[in-house]
Design a protein that fits this description.
alpha+beta; elongated; 416 residues; Phosphorylase Kinase, domain 1; six-stranded antiparallel sheet; Transferase(Phosphotransferase), domain 1
Length: 416
């Protein structure tokens, strides 16, 4: 086949107008369909190396897996065909281009929409059996139309990728380095849905800040530094939290695509308030941030009210101690037998009082929640820790937070 260039009539039908992209194993062209007289996009695989019939048949089977998937956030392929041994896909042309044009210029509200739409599309792919893992989520692979973000370039498996790359090494993994999660750099990496969640977090971070969270090294650098980069405090605590969870170095601590989609949808419909105190995140409280009193701005009571509450507790404690002393003297003077011995030990109360004082407040919350979970088998409230605290105990509670919102959305959907 002649070298692909502008003006070439591909497969006796599609006139090549302009190259839109050039990947490691394909070229993407804007074309004019001379039959339908419309502009379309062709993705032509391995234009520099003709494939044998076996590989072409594998391409055809993989295309059949994704052709019947219909979702508003997934690109609908129009046709699969082969021209002189070169597989190609036909797809609609989106004039607004990709989300790459928004890098560094994405508002928080648009960021929530990106998170919702891409997560919803991924949830649909991950729900397939076997699951379809995109493996290359990045702004350039997310298209724009007037209403939605649309995922493209999905459906080719890791095994198929190795075939088109001409490699038999099963360690070869698909993806673009800055958006590849840390586990893909381990020996014998496995492919699973959590890979896509990390890539989604990295791409959203780039859209919001204009910078890659771990530079061009991607997740490989995270294996060394471990610490997750922070979004600027100008973004809401909810969004900062969601991005941080996506970029967790432990795949098991990342939310699912479905959980992300439902949570982001809630934030799109009810935008969170701008942060008034970047030290505290409402996500660490069991109560839904949107259910706080209107004058609270969606945040827990401010510091002044907290101090007042502490003073009231201190006053009550003083009165309580005075009463205990009074009744102790009274009982001693009356030589009551067995009265004090029958009184329950207050060692636990003393421990709780100690935890409730000053800096031990967070430990008291953790202790109380742990007891509640064990005794009542109810969901634990994440402890009131700093936003950037990322220890293992928090991860369990934070994951439950996403599931809590998922359950709320499902219940509300059934009621409507």
């Amino acid at each position: 086949m002649a070298r692909l260039q502008q003006g070439y009539l591909f497969d006796s039908r599609y006139q090549l107008l302009r190259k839109l992209g050039d990947g490691g194993y394909s070229e993407v062209w804007l074309v004019q369909d001379t039959v339908g007289d419309i502009e379309l996009v062709l993705k032509i695989f391995l234009p520099d190396a003709q494939l044998d019939d076996k590989v072409v048949d594998l391409f055809r089977k993989e295309f059949q897996l994704v052709y019947n998937i219909n979702h508003p956030n997934l690109l609908k392929y129009s046709q699969f065909n082969v021209c002189m041994g070169y597989p190609y896909l036909v797809m609609p042309y989106y004039r607004l281009g990709s989300a790459a044009s928004m890098v560094g210029r994405c508002s928080e509200q648009m960021g929530w929409k990106y998170l919702r739409d891409v997560a919803a599309g991924l949830a649909r792919l991950h729900a397939q059996r076997p699951a379809i893992i995109h493996q290359d989520i990045k702004p350039a692979n997310v298209l724009l139309d007037s209403e939605n973000f649309i995922i493209t370039d999905f459906g080719i498996s890791a095994g198929m990728y190795n075939l088109v790359k001409g490699s038999s090494d099963n360690k070869v993994v698909q993806g673009t380095r800055p958006y590849m999660p840390p586990e893909k750099y381990l020996e014998n990496p496995e492919i699973y849905p959590e890979n896509d969640i990390w890539s989604l977090g990295a791409s959203l971070y780039e859209l919001l800040t204009g910078e890659l969270p771990f530079g061009i090294e991607g997740g490989e650098k995270q294996l060394e530094v471990l610490e997750c980069p922070k979004l600027p405090a100008s973004f809401s605590n909810e969004l900062r939290y969601a991005v941080r969870k996506c970029l967790s170095s432990n795949p098991g601590h990342r939310p699912t695509a479905k959980e992300l989609a439902l949570y982001a949808d809630k934030m799109v419909k009810n935008p969170p308030s701008p942060p008034t105190d970047s030290r505290v995140s409402p996500l660490y409280y069991s109560q839904d941030p949107l259910s706080y009193p209107p004058n609270s701005g969606g945040y827990p009571p401010k510091e002044g009210k907290k101090k007042l509450s502490i003073l009231m507790i201190a006053a009550v404690s003083v009165i309580g101690i005075a009463l205990v002393v009074f009744f102790t003297i009274f009982l001693f003077n009356h030589q009551g037998k067995g009265t004090i011995a029958d009184t329950a030990s207050n060692s636990d109360t003393t421990k709780v009082d100690s935890l409730l004082s000053g800096r031990n407040l967070e430990k008291a919350v953790t202790y109380t929640n742990t007891r509640r979970k064990k005794d009542n088998n109810r969901e634990v409230t994440p402890k009131g820790a700093d936003l950037e605290d990322d220890n293992e105990a928090d991860e369990v509670s934070e994951s439950e937070f996403f599931m809590q919102h998922t359950n709320e959305m499902i219940v509300s959907g059934k009621q409507q």
